[in-house]
Write a structure and sequence with these properties.
- The complex is a heterodimer.
- By secondary structure, chain A is mainly alpha-helical.
- Helices cover 78% and strands 0% of the residues of chain A.
- Chain B is mainly α.
- Among the domains of chain B are: 294 residues, no CATH class; 94 residues.
- Chain B has 28 helices and two strands.
- Chain B has a two-stranded antiparallel ribbon with strand order 1-2.
- Classes of the chains: A mainly alpha, B mainly alpha.
Chain lengths: 100, 715
């Protein structure tokens, strides 16, 4: 059996890549993908701990996360398409109407 | 039936006593509500019936009192309770109050009936027919308030009636308020009566206040119970109460110095003069003193003052009455004089004599007043008759009689032939007033004189009863003289005007009350014959330890002889002498044979000692000037123009100017603006954080997350 530390390490690496991606990339699609990475690092941990504790709760949570992620992607992509229609770009730095 | 035997048996109608108040209330309400839609006669019948039924109740009460001589107190409602003072509207039924009820409702009913005829002519003559209803409403209201006055069992309830009758008097004096001198004469007379009475009421109120302060109650019997103790502890309290009450009595019963309103009150219709200003209301003061006899008996000094005031008034008014030419003014001064007799009597402690004279006076003075009303209407008719006859119209013009005063006795004369019933009844009333035996006026007046002669009371070293006796005897002589003069002027000799020549007797509705009153005047003396004392025994149930007046032949002979001399003198002067002068041309003929003889003295009497003018100079004018000064200078110029406009408004203006200018703009606005600038600066600094870049926000969220996790972990 693979020790839990490995899962933790992999999950941390995945999360970090996702977080950094969200922070430094300007393409909205890429940011979206990075968010998916962070979600999946969490999923990985859920599954790993579910196995470690021999409990099904974690596994069920993963299903919920996947469902929410799917919904989010559907809404998010629709938004991105709408923004693209008006701005002809999906660069998030150009969407700064909230600037004070 | 002897009183002692029948005590506490037989029918008892005391519970009916509220009806003496409420039946007239029903009468006046009925007339008020439907009076515009029913004929005059019915209005009169309703008014008279209400008064008559009240009389019936009073008779039932009198019958009950024969069997239950102690009377009763019939409570109706609790008027108010404040702290320890509880005042009930309760009815005092005893021989004293029932005597007053009988007189007021009895004479009142006769006068109501008389008014049906009199007011019919009066409203026709003066023009406003709607006032017929108003007259009967006021008359019933008077009966109501007078009943409240005499049936009260405490001083406060009595005061309610006291004020109520004053109001009715005011309303009825000003009944023809648009008539009189300059169109406001009658209204002014009403005002004068009201204000003069107000002065008296002021004393009355103070007396009640002191009573409450000293006794803690205003109930008659509770006050009387405590009175001896208070008299021993603080005699000045009772002195103050009795003297302040005397002020009230002087106002209501027209005594010196507040009598001046009564002659002017003759502006009211004649039945009003008869009922309110002669027979009943003005006797309220006498009733008050009699009712308070237990207090007065404790203060001999106050009694002496009351008696002296009464005696002086009796003489003073009698002298004025000898030189008046208005038929009603003569009777008005006569009333003041007779009230003086009563007040003098009750002042001396001769309560029975005073009350008896009150009853007797109610009969014969109502008779005289109603008779004078009959004469006045006869003259008005005569004038009217002459005006509408083409021949006589010219004669009127020649004689300069187009406008004559129907109340001036100089315009009358010879009326005995045309108005026979009025003449004979008037003669009876006049003889009673003059004190000719055996009429009621003789017996009652003689009792007062006998008491004054018998009582030898000395106050401050002065035997005041002797002085009272002398004053009253002279007044009695003058009384006979002035009433003789009036009768001779009015009824004897030749008619001096066409109007007097064409007078006509009034209908039965007016003459029957005269006949009834004449009957009472003749036989009323039987109520209290000397040595029998029926009336005294009756009143003794209420007034304990009465002093019974003893008949004194000497006094009776002196007063009768003086009375006859007065009448004879009047006959000589106003019949013989006047006849002799009658044929002289009008310019040389004096209007009064005494005028050239008495000269200035006559003018003094005719002008009523210039007391009215004196009061004007002493009180009214200074008061008006003071009011004007207060209004113009103090109120308007000082308070309004200077204090309000300059001081208060000026200060306020400069203050608000400062508030609006410096304070508001600089301090309030400054603070608000400073606050706004601070917020603005902070905000403009804060807005720098809002970059609009998604990644910046994301970084903030991320850092925040790290901070929270770090905090949780490292805690």
């Amino acid at each position: 059996m693979v020790p839990i530390e490995y899962y933790l390490g992999l999950s941390a690496i995945l999360f970090t890549i996702g977080a950094v991606g969200v922070l430094i990339r300007r393409n909205a699609i890429i940011i979206f993908m990075s968010v998916e990475l962070m979600l999946n690092s969490a999923n990985l941990l859920f599954v790993a701990f579910a196995r470690l504790h021999e409990s099904m709760n974690g596994q069920i949570f993963v299903f919920f996360v996947m469902a929410v992620a799917a919904a989010e992607v559907a809404v998010g992509l629709a938004l991105i398409v709408a923004i693209f229609h008006t701005k002809r770009s999906i660069d998030v730095d150009e969407i700064h109407l909230l600037k004070g | 039936m002897l009183l002692s035997e029948a005590a506490s048996s037989g029918p008892n109608f005391f519970f009916l006593v509220p009806l003496v108040v409420f039946i007239p209330v029903i009468g006046l309400l009925t007339n008020m509500i439907i009076g515009d839609r029913i004929p005059e006669k019915i209005i009169g019948i309703i008014g008279s019936t209400a008064s008559g039924l009240a009389f019936l109740v009073a008779v039932l009460l009198g019958i009950s009192l024969l069997n239950h001589p102690d009377g009763a107190i019939v409570p109706l409602v609790n008027w108010f309770t404040i702290g320890e003072l509880s005042v009930d509207w309760a009815f005092q039924v005893d021989t004293l109050s029932v005597t007053m009820m009988l007189v007021v409702t009895g004479v009142g009913t006769l006068i109501h009936i008389y008014s049906i005829g009199y007011m019919h002519e009066d409203v026709r003559h003066k023009g406003d027919k709607k006032r017929y209803k108003r007259f009967f409403v006021f008359m019933n209201l008077f009966i109501v308030t007078m009943m409240v006055l005499v049936s009260a069992n405490n001083y406060l309830m009595l005061f309610v009636g006291w004020e109520g009758v004053g109001l009715c008097s005011y309303l009825l004096i000003g009944f023809w308020y648009e008539k009189g001198k300059d169109g406001i004469g009658n209204a002014l007379a009403g005002k004068k009566a009201f204000i003069t009475n107000r002065i008296g009421d002021f004393g009355m109120l103070l007396a009640i206040f002191i009573m409450f302060w000293a006794f803690g109650t205003v109930d008659f019997y509770e006050v009387f119970e405590q009175a001896p103790a208070v008299a021993a502890a603080a005699p000045w309290v009772l002195m103050a109460i009795t003297l302040l009450m005397l002020v009230g009595v002087a106002g209501k019963s027209a005594q010196i110095p507040l009598y001046v309103w009564l002659p002017d009150a003759m502006a009211g219709p004649t039945p009003v003069s008869a009922l309110i200003h002669a027979a009943t209301m003005v006797t309220a003061g006498v009733y008050l003193i009699t009712r308070s006899y237990e207090i007065y008996n404790l203060v001999p000094e106050a009694q002496a003052i009351v008696a002296t005031v009464g005696a002086l008034t009796a003489l003073f008014a009698a002298t004025i009455a000898t030189a008046q030419f208005d038929i009603k003014k003569v009777l008005a001064y006569s009333t003041i004089s007779q009230l003086g007799f009563m007040v003098a009597a009750v002042g001396m402690g001769a309560y029975v004599a005073g009350m008896f004279h009150l009853v007797a006076h109610a009969f014969f003075k109502a008779l005289l007043f109603l008779g004078s009303g009959s004469v006045i209407q006869g003259v008005e008719y005569g004038q009217h008759h002459a005006e509408h006859d083409s021949n006589q119209k010219n004669e009127l013009k020649q004689r300069g009689e187009e406008q004559i005063d129907p109340q001036d006795i100089r315009n009358m004369g010879g009326i005995r032939k045309t108005m026979k019933i009025t003449f004979w009844t008037y003669i009876i009333g006049a003889l009673a007033l003059a004190g000719v035996p055996p009429l009621v006026g003789f017996i009652s007046k003689d009792e007062i004189l006998a008491e004054a002669d018998n009582l030898d009371q000395v106050i401050f070293g002065i035997p005041y009863t002797d002085i009272v006796y002398i004053l009253l005897t002279v007044a009695a002589f003058l009384t006979a003289f002035y009433i003789g003069r009036q009768v001779l002027y009015v009824f004897f000799g030749k008619p001096r005007t066409l109007a007097a020549q064409h007078t006509k007797e009034n209908p039965l509705i007016m003459t029957v009350p005269l006949m009834i009153l004449a009957f009472l005047t003749i036989w009323g003396g039987g109520m209290n014959l000397p040595r029998v004392h029926t009336f005294a025994t009756w009143l003794e149930q209420t007034l304990q330890h009465l002093h019974l007046g003893e008949f004194d032949l000497r006094v009776a002979i002196i007063s009768t002889v003086l009375g006859l001399i007065g009448l004879l003198l009047a006959y000589l002067i106003y019949y013989r002498r006047y006849q002799a002068q009658h044929d002289l041309p009008a310019e040389q003929r004096p209007d009064d044979p005494l005028r050239p003889v008495l000269g200035r003295v006559f003018t003094l009497f005719e002008n009523k000692y210039w007391v009215d003018e004196l009061y004007w100079t002493l009180f009214v004018n200074p008061y008006v000037s003071l009011s004007k000064f207060l209004a113009d200078v103090v109120d308007w110029r000082f308070l309004h123009d200077w204090f309000h406009d300059v001081v208060i408004a000026g200060l306020y203006k400069s203050y608000t100017h400062w508030l609006a200018g410096d304070f508001d703009l600089k301090i309030i606005d400054g603070f608000a603006n400073w606050l706004a600038r601070i917020v603005e600066k902070f905000a403009s600094w804060l807005r720098k954080s809002e970059t609009g870049y998604v990644r910046n926000y994301a970084l903030s969220v991320f850092l925040g997350l790290i901070l929270i996790i770090g905090f949780i972990l490292l805690r």
